[in-house]
Amino acid sequence: MSNYKIVSSSEVPSFYSRVVEIWEYRELLLMLAWRDFRVKYAQSFLGFIWALINPIITLVVLSFIFGTVAKVDTMGIPHSLYTLAGLCGWTFFASLAADSGRSVLNAQEMIKKIYFPRLVLPLSKTFTSLIDFGIVLLCLAVLMVIYQYPPTIQLIWLPFFVFLAILAGIASGIWVSALTIRFRDFQHVMPLVLRIGMYATPVAFPASAVPEKYQFLFFLNPLAGVVEGMRWSLLGTSEFPPYIWLSLGILLLLFISGWIYFSRMERVIADII
Amino acid sequence: MKETVIKVENISKKYQLGKSAMGDLRSTICNLFSRRKEQAINTDFWALRDISFEVNQGDVLGIIGGNGAGKSTLLKILSRITTPTTGNVEITGRVASLLEIGTGFHPELTGRENVFLNGSLLGMRRQEIKDKFDDIVAFSEINQFIDTPVKHYSSGMYVRLAFAVAAHLEPEILIIDEVLAVGDIAFQEKCLGKMSEVAKGGRTIIFVSHNLDAIQKLCTSSIVLQNGEIIHQGESSLMVKKFLETMFSTASAVSQSPNDRSGNGTVRIESVHIEDEKGNYINTLFAGQWLKVVLNYKSTFPLIQSLIVRLEIVDASNRILFICNNLLSDGEFFNLSQSGQISCVINKLPLNKGSYFMHVYVQMNRKDSDILMNAYKLNVQNGNFYSTGKLPQTHKGLLVEYYWYVNNTKK
Question: Where are the strands (E) in chain A, listed by range?
Fold first, then answer.
């Protein structure tokens, strides 16, 4: 029941009024997040187990390929620890991007019957992804204790990189969810991109392993900065990731363009979904 | 002077019919590379054309129209689910729209959790839902199951809970579509009661329904839509009459396909409708109710002699259930004017719940003038035939009046 004067017209509302509206619908946003949480975790203990099994299996595979077979240099840090710190950022991004990318299509019945700012749907996925992230973080903490590897003062940078990962996940999520409204094909494209993307991102190997002349190109993938940066803050690896500001810039661009495209699609969504 | 709370100005809505209305990647890519755009395949369809009206504070407005008249599109625009192609809608006040009840219900969640989820989807604040929670549960009559996941609910329980949430919305403006079409007759009555309660509370309501009785009962004024345009606007019972007139003059009873209509045409039935005691047009009938079948006729003769009218009521498999024939009860009609009305009163409708059809036969001078097969569809609901409210569960056969007695009761 949004308040007071409501105008529905053929004109596109301003950015500011959209933000205000989403703020007004904050309770719905939290409600949807809570629903996802209930359905995913609270129904059974298995929900948590699955959130645990996924990164562990990925970790085992990646450690074997990059650590045991390819023997990638991780600057003295145990390879499994190094990879898991990379996975923290990556799985957070990937689960958020996948969930929010599907969110609009999954809610199509709701969309046809009731009005609310549609951006609430992808945004609400942040919370369950944060829980997944927390679980991986917990694994990392356990591993750090086992390897007797204490965190450093750089840990205070973690919130910043968490923010970047959210930005990346939401930006891709709103792009994909808006695109899938018109082109259903994109729901198949997303998992593919995420799978390939993991290897184009320094999850199991350091960015410095990439030859100098390709570094700039490599960091055009904004996730390279996010993942490398998060590992830097978690493990205190030696240098602050270069090109992190480039990643931030690209992410902001991706987010703003996604927002604009989503806003345009939002107006016709109920007609074509 | 009442304040205007909804102002609709010249809204139109265009849909694109055709191949690439929905759009897929392949055709978009093809379009990108081919000079011959596929646009030509698209045909525009105007679901609404230049609609304007205003609703004042406290008005209850009904929207009437046949299928495809644009009612749903109008509601979707008013509730902001979709935007108009051109034009403006201005709404002042808190709006809640109910195009469906139980939107967003998740089967895995409990009744309690779904109340909160559905409530916040409908725009209620969390605190508001908390305050009303006990009332909602009481209204839904499912107290003991409130902490059971709704996937275990019967469909009746599901609907009751969903409606209970909707019934406790307290917006200034309420937009409702056909929600009353759910549940059994008792539940529909309860919903209607709740709605008129809400309407009397001074709230502004926009109501779309196929249930013309409900429109007449609830709405102070109505608009009639046809092909996306407003064709009539005014007091509700008058609008219902006008709507039925346009319905029958354009579609069902009169311009029957040649297969369904025969006879020499010396007398033609122009329209068929059914009225209740108060003269209201009704299209939903109740078992045991009083009703009047009204036939409007026109003849090629200035004076009609020796007219026989026969109504055959048949079930869905075209078995005759009963016949109303003036020759049997009243005798032939004489000295009728060239056009007018012939009515047949049925004191107590002997039909069970279900759908039935009426064939109309008209004979003048013992020659078939007009035969209308399936001239009218009777939708009968459970009613109070035996003054007990009870009816045979089988929905078969006819209802007759009878009484029982026993003469060997023990003293």
Answer: 5-9
User: Could you report the per-residue pLDDT of B197-232, keeping only the tens digit for each?
Assistant: 877 777 888 988 777 777 888 888 999 998 889 998
Closest CB from A8, A114, A272 relative to B77: A8
User: What's at B197, amino acid-wise?
Assistant: E
pLDDT tens for each residue of B350-391: 998 888 888 899 999 888 999 888 788 888 888 888 888 788
Domain borders along chain A are 15-272
The Cα B294–Cα B343 span in angstroms is 4
Helix boundaries (H) for B122-204: 126-140, 155-167, 185-200
A6 touches B at CB < 8 Å = yes
CATH of domain B252-381: 2.70.50.60
Does the domain at B4-236 match CATH 2.40.50.100? Answer given as no
Helices (H) and strands (E) in chain B, counts: 9, 19
In angstroms, the Cα distances linking B280 to A10, A264, B141, B215, B273 are 40, 47, 34, 11, 10
Residues of A in contact with B22 (CB under 8 A): 182, 272
Domain range annotation of chain B: 4-236, 252-381
Supply the ipTM of this predicted assembly.
0.85
Cross-chain CB nearest to B108 (options A6, A9, A43): A43
Residue of A nearest to B77 (CA): A8
Residues 6+ apart with CB under 8 A from A180: A101, A102, A104, A105, A186, A187
